[in-house]
Design a protein that fits this description.
Length: 552
């Protein structure tokens, strides 16, 4: 192994051209990385010390195994520099736009760098050819490439020409150490080892490199290697394109998918508990490994497509409001079996919303994931509902998600998000009962929605005390924060009533659009006093609504 030291200029000079292999990660640098890169160049250009660029691992003098993020960034920087230089600039020595273009971007129509396949055309258009208008970014990495170029252009425009020239020459003279490899299998293995030594890669990128390595090892010949790599990378390309249409990051969906396949004991960073374990246990021959990879990646791609479809449903808003990630593996599993049966899918989503709500409302420290593990083995919605019902009502678990636990927790509830969720559902329930409101779906379009304490949190003075219960110890312990004493209200409405007497509040409630505000009067003692009895009546009514709404 020959370790070579050279400059960045020497690395690119002449007919040299590099490519980023399929198992490598896409471009991932963000504003923090770019700012540090620019600061380093500025600092080095102002001093006499050489700028050390770092190590780059290269296979067969062309494939960049490690260092591709820095190499890509340098080319983006060069393109930004060329874009902001005057068109008619005529400089001596090597600071000429045509020279810079040939040295770093394209030489005799051959790009100096070819990035991973699914970003290749975009990078060539935007960076190599400098065409800003030809295409829009379609993957997260393409967005980062565009943002990097725009950031560099913005920052370079702030500088004097002499400063820009100095920074350019600093990049040219920056020292780099190249470590060559000749065997592709060793190159991919080295990338795997780099992943395990603290490189900041996403789990999806680690998966992609692992799968590529397995293909190199187990494919029968070079033709099968190329065929399988092309198929796999094509599927990853589809996944990355879909990420723009999904409001979840790649690693989250990957995690949900793997749990849906392997259970809640799955651990992404533990080779004894992740996909590597399952591959090792299920495959003993090379053709079995290739078949496993084919099936796994196809199903993974479908999981991303299915998750995109799920985000079009009303249930995604509910699940996100309840903040229980444990339901998403069930969503992935349900789509894989019931993709063509929309009615069955809806039943699954309803069942999952119930367990998510009950876990949030019970406010228990019980580990939901471990207790849901057995329920992952379902084949239809009825089977899942039955398993979730047993989890909620079983002798060992009723203490966590049963009616008594939920009812007790609603006596003193301060979870604002959950209260909002409940009261939006309750508003819809009331509107469906009311003849003039029936069919209208309320989605909490209240301006600045807040949770109002009907009996104020601080005891009113004597002048304003009319209509409220005595603020004794029992009232503070059992009534002040109970759900029976809380209601959804607009922020401006809440501010206008403050600690006013109950009758004044009641008058404003009756003029409001929300049905639950109008309904408060029906619980008040003698229609004018908001005491413990009134709060208890409303508490019972709301608890009954909750238990009936979120019951299997």
């Amino acid at each position: 192994m020959n370790i070579l030291k050279s400059s960045i200029y020497d690395l690119f000079n002449g007919q040299k051209a590099f490519r980023i292999p399929v198992y490598q990660r896409a471009y991932s640098w963000d504003r923090v990385n770019l700012s540090q890169f620019l600061d380093d160049i500025k600092e080095a250009s102002q001093g006499k010390n050489e700028y050390f660029f770092g190590n780059v691992l290269i296979e067969n003098n062309s494939d960049i195994i490690d260092g591709q993020q820095r190499i890509t960034t340098i080319l983006i920087f060069i393109r930004a520099l060329l874009d902001i230089l005057p068109q008619n600039m005529s400089e001596e020595n090597n600071f000429r736009k045509d020279f810079i273009l040939e040295d770093f971007l394209i030489y005799r129509n051959v790009p100096k760098l070819t990035v991973i396949e699914y970003d290749r055309d975009y990078f060539k258009s935007l960076i190599i050819n400098g065409d800003d208008d030809k295409s829009n970014p379609s993957t997260p990495s393409q967005v980062r490439i565009k943002e990097a170029k725009e950031y560099f252009k913005t920052e370079l425009k702030k500088l004097e020409l002499e400063t820009i020239k100095s920074m350019y020459y600093t990049v040219c003279k920056a020292q780099i150490i190249t470590i060559p490899f000749e065997n592709k299998k060793d190159s991919v293995l080295m990338f795997e080892l780099q992943n395990n030594r603290g490189k900041s890669l996403t789990n999806m990128e680690k998966l992609k490199s692992f799968i590529s390595y397995q293909i190199y090892i187990h494919a029968q010949n070079k033709q099968q290697v190329e065929l399988k790599l092309s198929e796999v990378i094509g599927m990853f390309e589809d996944i990355y394109r879909e990420l723009k249409n999904i409001n979840a990051n790649e690693d989250s969906v990957l995690r949900y998918f793997n749990i849906s396949k392997f259970g809640f004991t799955y651990r992404e960073d533990d080779p004894k508990l992740n996909y590597k374990k399952h591959l090792k246990e299920q495959c003993f021959e090379s053709h079995e490994v290739i078949k496993w990879i084919d099936d796994y990646v196809k199903n993974l791609k479908n999981a991303f497509l299915d998750f995109k479809e799920f985000e079009k449903t009303e249930y995604i808003k509910q699940f996100r409001a309840l903040e229980r990630w444990e339901v998403y593996p069930f969503v992935i599993k349900a789509y894989s079996m019931l993709r063509q049966n929309s009615q069955e899918l809806v039943q699954v989503f309803k069942a999952l919303e119930i367990i998510a709500f009950r876990d949030r409302a019970a406010d228990t420290r019980a580990d939901l994931a471990s207790r849901l593990n057995s329920a992952l083995d379902f084949s239809n919605s009825a089977e899942l509902v039955d398993k979730l019902r047993k989890i909620c009502n079983g002798d060992m678990t009723i203490q966590y998600w049963g009616d008594e636990r939920i009812s007790a927790n609603l006596t003193n509830i301060n979870d604002i998000k959950l209260l909002n969720y409940i009261f939006v559902k309750y508003e819809n329930f009331l509107r469906q009962k009311h003849s003039t409101k029936r069919g209208y779906v309320f989605e909490n379009n209240v301006k600045d929605p807040q949770i109002e304490h009907i009996s104020p949190q601080t005891e009113p003075n004597e002048k304003l005390a009319s209509g409220y219960s005595e603020y004794d110890q029992i009232f503070f312990e059992k009534y002040i924060n109970s759900i029976g004493n809380k209601v959804l209200i607009a922020g401006s409405h809440n501010a206008s009533i403050g600690n006013k007497p109950f009758l004044d509040k009641l008058s404003s409630y009756n003029e409001a659009d929300l049905m639950q505000l109008k309904e408060v009067c029906s619980f008040a003692t003698d229609n004018k006093i908001w005491d413990k009895k009134a709060i208890e009546k409303r508490q019972i009514s709301l608890v009954n609504f909750i238990q009936e709404t979120w019951r299997y």
